[in-house]
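Changelog excerpt

This revision adds worked examples to the README so contributors can see how folded entries look when concatenated. The first example is reproduced verbatim below.
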Amino acid sequence: MELDQLINLQPDEYQIFMRNVSTGCITPYDNNPVDLVSGITCAVEVGFCSDGIDNDLDGLVDC
C-alpha cells in the first residue's frame, strides 16, 4: 500500500503485511488483525529530499 492509499483510511479491522524492498519477501505482522479505531489523517513533510520519493503526492519526485 502506498502512502496516498493510507490517507483517510477508515476505522475497520485490517491485516498488515510487511515487504522487504530489497528481497521482496512478504511477512504478516505478528499482531494481526489490527483494529483501527479512528481514521488516519496524514501530514507529510513537504519536500523531503533524501528518499527520492514523491512524499507530498504532487506527482513529482521531491527536490
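The second example, added in the same revision:
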Amino acid sequence: MNVELLTLNAKGSILPKTRRFPQPFSSSKKRETCLFLNSAIRASRVYRIIMRLLLVTPCFPPLQASGSLRTQGFARAWSQAGCAVTVLTTVKRADQAGMPLPVDGIDVAEVDYQAPALLEKLRQSGKRSQGADIPQSQVAPRRPSGVLAWLHRLKERTGVFSAIRMPDLTDYWIKPALAWARRQPPWDAVVSSFGPYSAHLVARALKHEGRANLWVADYRDLWTDNCAFTGLFPFTVWERRQEARCLREADLIVTVTETLAVKLRARTPRPVEVIYNGYNPEDSKNLMPEPFFPSDGIRRIVYTGTYYPQGHDATPLLRALKEVRRTRPDVYTRLRLEVAGWNTELWAQLARQHDVADAVRVHGPLSRQDSLRMQRDASALVLLDWDPRDGVLSGKVFEYLAVAAPILVVGGAPQSAMGWMMQRTRRGCHYGVDHRALTQALTDLVTAPERMTPIPDRGFLAKLTRFGQSLRLLQLIRDRLPPDVKMRRAA
C-alpha cells in the first residue's frame, strides 16, 4: 500500500517521494488504515511533511509488562500510518527482558543509566525464576534481608522504586535521556506514557525547550491518585506539585478508562480523552498449535497476571470452588483453576485456606506466548476487579476479549469499568462477590457448558483493536498540531 508524500529540499522545492509501509497489512488493518488515510486525504490532497513523533516510555519491549503492549502498539501503528516514529526508552536489564515484539519501521533509542547498587538489588528483590510449574504451591520468591528487606516492604506498601511513585530508579535516566534528545532534530509531537513518571518529566522538558510542537501525556494508570500505592511522605508533596505542572502544561491527556478520565479532568483544564488499551487479533494466529493443557477432560479456569492484594480479592471464587466440592464432588474433580503470573503464592495460600488446594495449580511467571496459549485453551477466564471508584481496566481485559472462552469477573461491583466492558461486549459476566452465582457458573461449566458460551458483540469488539485505538490517538494528535506543521492542501 503506497501513500504519496511531499518533502522539501534544501532550497524549499517540493519533491515527491513514495513511502511504503514496512509490512503488508492484514485485512482488518487495511480497513482501519484506509479509513484513517481517507480522512486525511479529504482534508488535504497533498502531504507536505512526514509527521515526526517521539514516544517517551521506559515501558517498551522487550520489557515484560502489559504496558509494553500499549506503547509498542502506538509506535507500530503510527509507523504503518506513514509517520517517522522514534521511541526513547531505557536499556533493559537481563531480568527485565522477556517479551520481544516487532519494532520494524520504528527508530528505537535505548538510553542506559546507572542507579545505585542497593536500588538495583531492590528492583530485583521478590522476583522468582520464570517458567516454574508447581502443582499446589509456589516456589518462594527471593526475599531480601536486612536493610533491603525494609526497603522491599516499603516498596510494596507505597509504590516507591516501582515505576509508579516517587522516587524511582528511572530518576537516574532523566538526564541521559534528555541529553540524547537534545542532540536530535525537533519533533512535531512528543507522547509520554506513564508509568514511570520520568517519561512525563522528560517530555515536559522537551516541550518547554521548544523541541516539540505538541505534548501528549498518556496515563496508563494514575500517578499521585493511584489506587494501589499511596506514595511516601515527603515525596508525595513534591510529586503532587510535579504532576500538577504536567497536567497544566500537556496539550492533550489520554487515559484508559472514562472513570480515570473524570478524575483527571477534575485536576486540569486540558482536554482528556480515553484511548483503550485494545487487543491485537493477530496474537492468537502466531501461537504454537500444540495445546498447553493435556486432553484429560478437565475444565480449566485460567488466570494470567499479577495478583494485587491492595485491591484484588479472589475469595468469592475459592468459596465457590469449596461449595462445588461440598455439593457436587463429581463436578469438582473435573475442575481445575490454573494461575500464572506474579504473586501467585497468594493464590496458593487462599486455596489452602479454603481446602481446595488439590483443584488449584499455580505456575510461576510464564512467557507471553505460554500465557496466550493458556488463555486460548481455557474453558473459562478469570478477571479480578477493583473497587468501582478506581476505574481499573487493565490490558489483561482486552487480551481476554480476543479469545473465545467466557470471562468470569470476580470482586468489585458490576457498575465498575470491567462490569461495563463485559456488558457492552457480551464476553462474560461480572459476579462481584456473589459466590453462589459463581458456584452455579462453575457447575454449568462442566454439566452445561452451552449456558456459559458467550455471544459477543463483534461490531463493538472490532472498535477495540490496539491498532484502531492507536490510529484514533494519531488523529487526535494531528488535529491539535499548529497550522504550520499540519498536513494541508498545497498552495
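Reviewer comment on example two: The chain has 17 helices and 16 strands. The first helix runs from residue 27 to 43.
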